[in-house]
Amino acid sequence: MRIEQGHRLAAFMIATEFGDLPALTKLPAALDRLGLLQVSTVLLFLLGGDEALRGEDGLPKTETPEMIESFFNMMAVAGRDAEFVRPEYLLADQVHLRSRVLGCGIVANCQNSLTSIGIGEGLLGALESLLATSLNLTTLPNLDHLEIRFVQSDDAPLTPVLSFIEEKGSTIAVVTHRPRLTYANRKEAAEFYDWLAQSVMRIFVTFAVPADSDAWGAAVLDDESGFSRAITFSNVPTMYGVIFGGKEKISIDDWSEDGDEPVALTRRLRGRRSFPTRRSARGL
Fold first, then answer.
1. Contact 104, 207 (CB under 8 A)
2. Any alpha helices (H) in 84-184, and if so which ranges?
């Protein structure tokens, strides 16, 4: 299982953007500690080409640069055929979550923190669930794009706050929240679910108009239980707290330890790497 997992991760990470590599120079050492040698080998190649691999004394001298390049090209083809997306290492200050509901492209611009990302995922997931419970009802979209902007503030109340602003002729939903949501009792925790349900409804009617609002409300809020179940399981910030403990941000640096030697970034690529085709695998 570990070997198979390593192969899949290696095929996934071969598509790493060149611009992300300067932040990953210490990651091979961490991957070695986790027993993911295939993945660390991929990163070594991306960082320093065949010379970095030879420096690890892991390659026979009979392996030519062309043979090495061909091997990693085949791995890139495998990742492409498996429809792996490009790795996102969350290196920027913001994280962009995207979804499409009723033809409206929704972008949640979250702060790069577990709380902000968790609230964003909870909102988008609940919006998608709301749509799923009303597919048999006529609902017309009136926006083709909606931004949900997340603002982290130490002065924000425990329960997030949703507001709407007009900016350059567009409506933007703004969610203000604390850096961490820590509840002292069950009542405080329940307030998040109430806020989430109300916020999803407010956001939904911002970009969609039910043809029959009474029938839509009765079906979605009274007859259907799917939406209420979605809200019940949408406290993603709390889930992240259980999984990741007290971490406020997941960073590549968290996996590094004192004494980890960085790998020199000596490989040079021009432009964005594209996946090779099966018929022509000449270069990354």
1. yes
2. 114-132
Compute the distance between CA of residue 114 and CA of residue 182 in angstroms, rounded to an integer: 13
Residue 232: both structure tokens together: 């019940």
CA angle at residue 105 from 99 to 106, to 5 degrees?
60
Q: For the chain, how are helix, strand and coil distributed in percent, rounded to 5? A: 45, 15, 35
Does 158 or 132 have the greater pLDDT score?
158
The answer to whether the predicted template modeling score (pTM) of the entire model surpasses 0.85 is no
Q: Which of 143, 262, 258 has the alpha carbon at shortest distance from 205?
A: 143
In whole angstroms, give the CA distance from residue 260 to residue 63.
Answer: 28
Which residues does 60 contact at the CB level (< 8 Å), separation at least 6? Answer: none
Identify which has the larger pLDDT, 282 or 131: 131
Query: In angstroms, rounded to a whole number, what is the distance separating the alpha carbons of residues 45 and 16?
Result: 11
Neighbour-count burial of 156, counting CB atoms closer than 10 A to its CB (0-12 exposed, 13-18 middle, 19+ buried): middle
In the numeric block, the tokens 């009979």 are attached to: 62
